[in-house]
C-alpha cells in the first residue's frame, strides 16, 4: 500500500520483491539515457533501420548497438520486425531531435547520473564531492540544465501564475529566473505588468535567447547578478522564486529572504515555489529524493519544511499569507511585507 504521495506504508514496509526492483531500477534508466546520449532514436528516425545502419549513424560497435536496441524493444521504446527496428509512438514524439516535442532537457538527466553516482561519498562528507558546484559547470552542462528547467517551467508556469493574485502588481522580480519562462507567464497574464529576470552572468545570454524567441523583449528586463552576493534592486511589487531555495543552505535562504524584503515596496509580496516537506522529512517522496539530488550536486542544498520557510519570512519582516499546493510535493508559499517592518 502507498500513501497519496507515493510513500510506502511504514507498517507494511517494502517486500523482498520491492527491494530487488529498487536495486535494479538503475538498469532501465541507464539504457534510456545511453540511447538518448548516443542519439539512437534520432538515428532510427521515421523509418525502419537495422542495427548495422544505426551503429554506423552513431559511430558505435554493431553488436553492442544491436543488444542496446533489443533492450529498448524490451522497454517498449522501439519495435522490431525481422532485423529492423523502428521507434514506437512515444519515442517518435519525444526522443527524435528536431521534433516539436523533443525532450531536449533530458540531457540534464544524463548529467545527473554522474552526480548521483557520488551519493555514497556525499553522505560520508555531508555535501557534494564534486570539485565545483553544478551551477559552475561548463557551457554544455549549463545549456542542458536551462533547457531542462525551461521544458518543465514553460508547461506549468501559466497554471501556477493563474493562482497568484496580481491585482496591484505591475513590477515582478523573477529571482534565478533562468530561461524566463515564469516571467513570460506573468506578463502574458496581465497586460500592464513588467517582469525582470535576475540570474547569473553566465545564464543571462541564454535567458535573452528564450525571451527573444518568445517576442517579449519589450516587457521583460534582465539583470545579471549573484543573489548570494548582490542586492536585487528595488521597487518591485512581487518577487517570485521558483526552484531556488533547494539550492541553498538554511542560512543562505534566510539571508536571501531578507534581501527580497529589501527589494519590495511596503505591502509587496514574496512567492516561493518549491518542494515543501512535512516535519518528518520523508514526505512527500519527491522532496525526500530531491534532497539527495541537492546533496550530491551542491555544497549545502536541501529541501525545507513549511515551518522553516515561515520562520524565514517572519524574521525578514513578512506576514505569511497562504500556502497553495501545486501537486507532486510542490507548493507556493506567499508572504506580504509588513506595513511596519521589523
CATH class of the largest domain: Alpha Beta
Return the domain count: 2
Order of helices and strands, N to C? HHEHHEEHHHHEHEHEEHEHEHEE
Alpha-carbon distance between the two ends: 48 Å
- List segments where confidence is low: pLDDT < 50 over at least 5 consecutive residues: 1-9
| Count of beta strands | 11
Output the number of helix runs.
13
* Largest sheet entry: 8 strands, mixed
- The portion of residues forming beta strands comes to 15-25%
Describe the protein's architecture and organization.
This protein is an alpha/beta fold and 342 residues long. The protein has two domains: 16-97, Arc Repressor Mutant, subunit A (Orthogonal Bundle); 120-337, 3-Layer(aba) Sandwich (Rossmann fold). 45% of the residues lie in helices and 20% in strands. The protein has 13 helices and eleven strands. The protein has helices at residues 16-38, 40-44, 51-58, 62-74, 89-94, 106-116, 119-125, 139-161, 181-189, 204-214, 250-263, 285-297, 306-315; strands at residues 49-50, 78-81, 84-87, 171-175, 194-199, 220-224, 236-242, 264-277, 304-305, 318-327, 330-337. The longest helix has 23 residues, at 16-38. The protein is globular. The chain starts with 15 loop residues before the first helix and ends in a 5-residue tail after the last strand.
Helix and strand arrangement:
Blueprint: H1 16-38, H2 40-44, E1 49-50, H3 51-58, H4 62-74, E2 78-81, E3 84-87, H5 89-94, H6 106-116, H7 119-125, H8 139-161, E4 171-175, H9 181-189, E5 194-199, H10 204-214, E6 220-224, E7 236-242, H11 250-263, E8 264-277, H12 285-297, E9 304-305, H13 306-315, E10 318-327, E11 330-337
Parallel strand pairs: 4-5, 4-7, 5-6, 7-8, 8-9
Antiparallel strand pairs: 1-3, 2-3, 8-11, 10-11
Helix pairs in contact: 1-6, 3-4, 6-8, 8-9, 11-13
Amino acid at each position: 500500500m502507498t500513501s497519496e504521495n507515493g510513500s510506502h506504508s511504514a507498517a507494511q514496509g517494502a517486500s523482498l520483491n520491492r527491494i530487488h526492483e529498487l536495486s535494479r531500477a538503475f538498469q532501465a534508466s541507464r539504457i534510456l539515457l545511453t540511447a538518448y546520449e548516443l542519439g539512437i532514436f534520432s538515428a532510427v528516425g521515421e523509418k525502419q533501420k537495422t542495427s548495422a545502419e544505426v551503429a554506423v549513424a552513431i559511430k558505435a560497435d554493431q553488436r553492442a548497438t544491436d543488444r542496446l536496441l533489443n533492450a529498448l524493444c524490451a522497454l517498449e521504446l522501439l519495435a522490431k520486425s525481422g532485423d529492423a527496428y523502428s521507434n514506437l509512438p512515444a519515442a517518435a514524439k519525444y526522443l527524435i531531435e528536431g521534433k516539436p516535442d523533443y525532450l531536449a532537457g533530458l540531457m540534464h538527466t544524463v548529467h545527473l547520473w554522474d552526480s548521483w553516482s557520488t551519493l555514497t561519498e556525499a553522505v560520508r562528507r555531508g555535501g557534494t564531492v564534486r570539485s565545483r558546484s553544478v551551477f559552475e559547470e561548463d557551457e554544455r552542462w549549463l545549456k542542458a540544465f536551462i533547457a531542462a528547467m525551461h521544458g518543465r517551467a514553460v508547461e506549468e508556469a501559466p497554471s501556477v501564475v493563474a493562482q497568484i493574485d496580481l491585482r496591484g502588481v505591475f513590477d515582478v522580480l523573477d529571482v534565478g529566473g533562468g530561461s524566463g519562462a515564469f516571467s513570460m507567464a506573468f506578463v502574458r497574464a496581465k497586460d500592464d505588468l513588467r517582469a525582470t529576470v535576475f540570474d547569473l552572468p553566465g545564464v543571462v545570454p541564454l535567458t535573452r535567447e528564450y525571451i527573444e524567441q518568445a517576442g517579449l523583449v519589450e516587457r521583460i528586463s534582465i539583470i545579471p547578478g549573484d543573489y548570494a552576493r548582490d542586492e536585487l534592486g528595488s521597487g518591485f511589487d512581487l518577487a517570485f522564486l521558483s526552484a531556488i531555495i533547494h539550492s541553498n543552505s538554511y542560512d543562505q535562504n534566510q539571508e536571501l529572504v531578507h534581501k527580497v524584503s529589501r527589494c519590495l515596496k511596503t505591502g509587496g509580496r514574496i512567492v516561493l515555489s518549491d518542494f515543501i516537506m512535512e516535519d518528518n522529512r520523508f514526505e512527500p517522496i519527491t522532496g525526500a529524493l530531491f534532497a539527495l539530488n541537492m546533496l550530491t550536486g551542491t555544497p549545502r542544498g536541501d529541501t525545507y519544511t513549511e515551518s522553516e520557510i515561515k520562520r524565514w519570512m517572519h524574521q525578514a519582516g513578512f506576514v505569511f499569507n497562504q500556502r497553495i499546493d501545486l501537486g507532486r510535493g510542490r507548493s507556493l508559499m506567499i508572504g506580504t511585507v509588513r506595513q511596519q517592518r521589523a
